[in-house]
Amino acid sequence: MMITALKSATFIGIDAVPVDVEVFISNGIPGIMIVGLPDASTKEAKDRVKAAIKNSGFEYPVKKITINLAPADLRKEGPIFDLPLAIGILISAGRLACAVNLDDYIIAGELSLNGKINRINGIIALCRLAGKLNKKLIIPYDNINSACYIGIDFLAFRRLKDVCGFISSGYAKDSERNGAIYVHDVKNIFKDKEGNEEFFFRKYIAEADNALKKTKIDYPDFSDIKGQELTKRAILIAVCGRHNILMVGPPGSGKTMLAQSIAGIQPDILLEESIETSNIYSFSNKKIGGESGLIGKRPFIPVHHTVSTAGLIGGGALNPAPGDISLAHNGVLFIDEFSELSRKTLDSLRQPMEDKTVNLSRSRFSIILPCDFMLVAAMNPCPCGYYGDKNHECRCSGAEIYKFYAKLSGPILDRFDIFIEVYSSNLDELTEGRVIENSSEVQKTVERVRQIQLERYKGKDCGGIKFNASLRSSDADKYLLISPPALELVKNAVKKLNISSRGYFRILRVSRTIADMDGKKEVDAGSVLEALNYRNTKLLNV
Q: Which domain holds residue 436?
């Protein structure tokens, strides 16, 4: 009897790692034994594989079948081993001749009982692994929409018998039209006559975006917000530079509505950002957009104040799953009632906000998840909600207010770039008929400022950043271009207001964004004064 070895993969966090699938058939009591630390869904593959082989027109071997998933000390999860197991059994049993070098391929797919190959999660991670190992992929046909932009060669099939046809003949043939696609240069099939690949990507993204709008909440348009001009200006600055913003105000002042309107003015997502974000979502039960393909817009993730630390940061006993901060990667994380989160959960945000990654350690391994998000937080100014409000009397004692703010540690507050106090609009502002820019018009400003930042940091040795908020303090002198009078103004303010070094650089970054919005090449005193205005708040004393 022969041993058949194929290559597949499993997942740790949001990364794929290679797994060798070894199949050995021998005389003995008929049955399948799967070893190599499989989980329950992987163990159940033996029943799916047996039915799929029979219903695909092949004779199932009545022998003792031993399957090893190596390395043996790495836990294997999910049904993606169904397809390599079926192929390995057929080859080892002599039911399938092999005309191709299977060592060149990573094989993954879930099988239905009738032999159909179902889509799998984590296809982008698989594509990245294949590119790293210089391998090709054999994957389900339904995963084409995600795989086609990664830049690797792959074969996509609908049925097990079509995969077997390719293996036995050396070329892709299918029993029905479009049953298999073999792509040598995946990007070429998405180019028009002029070679405009980006056109097709944008068309696809637009279709995904339309599907997304049908399934998600219809967030407020910017034009729906009456008054609140100062707050809207602060929000626009925050979105243009992706600065963290904290809004403090009484109930009914419009904090939540203002935050939700950000969903409609975020800049368009770039291809590489869409791939990164889609990869994260493929490992989460929280889906946005269609069943397959890439995410068409930047995420906007609202978080309830009762969220657990694991739900926010990510976690799990065996293979940690992405939390809300990773699901908001390249987008916005919105936390309403910010002060109501537990102290532990609040402080768990400190490292991810600074490093743009979160490290989840377990006894046998650790994983790093990306979480480059813009944090938008909203809270009341006191327990009763009316401290500082001109229209309502605050009922809280000084001790109650002190306790209320004691939960917000200095380090977490120091990571916000913009603080804004939000007060209720008066009746005249709510009823006036003044024309207000809608979200699509505001987004044009955001896109214009985003392009300025992309050009500034393009090809530079600054970590591949795309927004001012991510600029490292060590690169501030190179890229912020602050005039001497403006710089002197910042230094004096930092000394007078006792602002930390982190706060100092955050003021500089916000000033750079304001200057970009106003079309200034150099940050002047006016930009600095506005940035300082958003940093100095009596409520939080920072």
A: 216-447
CA distance 11 to 16: 4
Q: What is the pLDDT of residues 326-383, one digit of tens each?
A: 999 999 999 999 999 999 999 999 999 999 999 988 777 788 899 999 999 999 989 9
**Sequence-separated (6 or more) residues with CB below 8 Å from residue 425:** 226, 227, 228, 253, 254
Instruction: For residue range 448-484, list pLDDT tens digits in order.
Output: 999 999 999 887 677 778 899 999 888 888 888 999 9
Structural contact between residues 77 and 121, judged by C-beta atoms closer than 8 angstroms: no
Choose among 168, 157, 170, 151: nearest CA to 112: 157
- Taking the model in full, what pTM does it have? 0.85
Quick one: which of 114, 104, 59 has its CA closest to 82? Answer: 114
Same domain, 365 and 404: yes
490 and 403 part of one domain:
no
Contacts of 217-220 with CB under 8 Å at 24 or more apart are 219/260, 219/261, 219/263, 219/264, 219/300, 220/257, 220/260, 220/261, 220/264
Does 443 share its domain with 481? Answer: no
Are residue 366 and residue 281 in the same domain, yes or no? yes
Distance in angstroms (rounded) separating the CA atoms of residues 328 and 325: 5
| Cβ–Cβ < 8 Å for 422, 247 | yes
Same domain, yes or no: 398 and 331: yes
Residues near 467 by beta carbon (within 8 Å), at least 6 away in sequence: 241, 242, 450, 453
